[in-house]
């Protein structure tokens, strides 16, 4: 089973899959053999996280609990499995040579459209009668049900990210402490959790031969997707569930003009994405930047470093990590810059929010 934009890169892939399908112990309960999706058009920088490393890392772990979910492409499936009449298991197999290759979107707009579609589909499963927490818990182990549920409900990650992107900077602006003081013994818990998680992620990337730049690109794209794809996926699914909209399918356009391809190869983001995606990103960036500058000035002036240090660090982390967005709004003049209309709309919205926060 292949997507129309993928092709077989190894003629022995069928034979490799048959090694599992013909295994006398595994075959009676095997539904399909899933290969990873690999892409021939990913640049060295991979600024859009097109390799989707975080997905295939999960899929390896799935092998220990009856295998991964069907990934839509790059698999050899048994016909009986399509009927859904038995409790099948799956296998994820990752040979050294990619068995299937395809094209991945190389501009921000198409990446966000594609991921919104994917996570809307997962959210539809989460809110259906086939939810892994309800339907799945009766037919599989608790561990497998929980892991499948993590995928199905993945879009709700937008909630904590929006809270961090809005509540923290506004409280920083108003001198409202949300974290323990530096002198408190409980303060160390927060930097420990943050640093340990990030250092663990960096360590995994480094031992796999990647760089710190890969870490920053993956972190940046996760934030961008959380504020756009996950939010709209959850919103659209909820609206569809109550009958306000109808489900639709928007195909991904993977054709790229020469200038857009050049930007991608240079490691520059193409911010010519749909306005509904760009306005929240730019608005929240301006909001955090302004709150940090104003809030830091007040902290230094009033001597509240002990109370507000951690709270000022979180917006700063987001500002530095997403600096390419500021470049797109202010510094860049090429085709991939943030459009003037998006920058103006975002500036107006963030100014209104800041003014309201200042007078309340």
Automatic annotation (TrEMBL):
Transmembrane annotation, as ranges: 151-170, 176-195, 277-296, 308-326, 338-359
PANTHER family the record matches: X-BOX TRANSCRIPTION FACTOR-RELATED (PTHR13301)
Pfam families named among the record's database cross-references: Cellulose_synt
Organism lineage: Eukaryota, Viridiplantae, Streptophyta, Embryophyta, Tracheophyta
UniProt entry tagged with the keyword Acetylation: no
Gene Ontology CC annotations of this record: endomembrane system; membrane
Protein location: Endomembrane system
The keyword Transmembrane appears for this protein: yes
Organism: Perilla frutescens var. hirtella (Perilla citriodora)
Keywords: Cell wall biogenesis/degradation, Glycosyltransferase, Membrane, Transferase, Transmembrane, Transmembrane helix
Membrane topology per record: Multi-pass membrane protein
GO molecular function: cellulose synthase (UDP-forming) activity
Main location: membrane
Gene Ontology biological-process annotations: cell wall organization; cellulose biosynthetic process
The name this protein goes by in its record: Cellulose synthase-like protein G2
């Amino acid at each position: 089973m292949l997507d129309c934009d993928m092709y077989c890169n190894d003629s022995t892939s069928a034979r490799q899959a048959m090694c599992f399908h013909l295994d006398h112990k595994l075959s009676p309960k095997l539904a399909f053999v899933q290969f990873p999706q690999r892409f021939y058009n990913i640049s060295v920088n991979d600024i859009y996280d097109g390799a989707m490393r975080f997905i295939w890392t999960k899929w390896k772990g799935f092998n220990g609990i009856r295998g991964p979910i069907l990934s839509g492409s790059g698999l050899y499936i048994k016909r009986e499995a399509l009927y859904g009449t038995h409790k099948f298991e799956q296998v994820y197999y990752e040979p050294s040579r990619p068995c299937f290759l395809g094209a991945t979107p190389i501009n921000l707009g198409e990446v966000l459209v594609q991921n919104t579609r994917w996570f809307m589909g997962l959210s539809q499963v989460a809110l259906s009668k086939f939810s892994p927490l309800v339907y799945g818990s009766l037919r599989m182990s608790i561990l497998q049900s929980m892991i499948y549920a993590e995928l199905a409900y993945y879009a709700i990650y937008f909630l904590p990210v929006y809270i961090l992107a809005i509540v923290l900077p506004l409280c920083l602006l108003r001198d409202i402490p949300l974290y323990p003081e530096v002198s408190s013994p409980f303060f160390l818990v927060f930097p420990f959790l943050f640093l340990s998680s990030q250092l663990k992620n960096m360590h995994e990337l480094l031992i796999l031969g990647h760089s710190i730049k890969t870490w920053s690109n993956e972190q940046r794209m996760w934030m961008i997707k959380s504020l756009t794809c996950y939010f709209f996926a959850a919103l659209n699914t909820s609206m569809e569930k109550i009958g306000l909209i109808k489900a639709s399918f928007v195909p991904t356009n993977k054709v790229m003009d020469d200038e857009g391809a050049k930007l991608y190869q240079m490691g520059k983001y193409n911010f010519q994405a749909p306005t509904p995606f760009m306005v929240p990103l730019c608005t929240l960036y301006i909001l955090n930047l302004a709150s940090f500058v104003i809030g830091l000035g007040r902290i230094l002036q009033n001597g509240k470093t002990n109370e507000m240090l951690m709270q000022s660090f979180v917006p700063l982390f987001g500002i530095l990590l997403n600096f390419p967005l500021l470049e797109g709004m202010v510094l860049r003049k090429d085709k991939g810059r943030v459009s003037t209309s998006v920058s103006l709309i975002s500036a107006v919205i963030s100014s209104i929010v800041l003014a309201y926060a200042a007078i309340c």
